[in-house]
Amino acid sequence: AVFWQPSSIDDIRLNKEIHLYVNASNIEEVKNQLATATIIQRVLIEDVQQLIKKQKHTNEALRPRGLFSYYERYHPLEE
């Protein structure tokens, strides 16, 4: 698991919410460990990868097209 909030284990405080990123392959293990420690948990984002893909698709759709926009973005020398 990776901390999203707080960004460090040193910043964890009693009765404060923390957010973790957990790989799908580890989710059941983490849920079981939290339950064993009587820590209440809930999933905020079911599929982060799907959210990233959706955001990337939206950003690409909003990207300006046309000759003028070519000069507004960095292009390597090979282009």
From TrEMBL:
It comes from the Eukaryota. It holds the Pfam family Propep_M14. Residues 2-55 form the Carboxypeptidase activation peptide domain. One of its GO terms (molecular function) is metal ion binding. SUPFAM superfamilies: Protease propeptides/inhibitors. Keywords: Metal-binding, Zinc. The keyword NADP does not apply. This is Carboxypeptidase activation peptide domain-containing protein. It comes from Scyliorhinus torazame (Cloudy catshark).
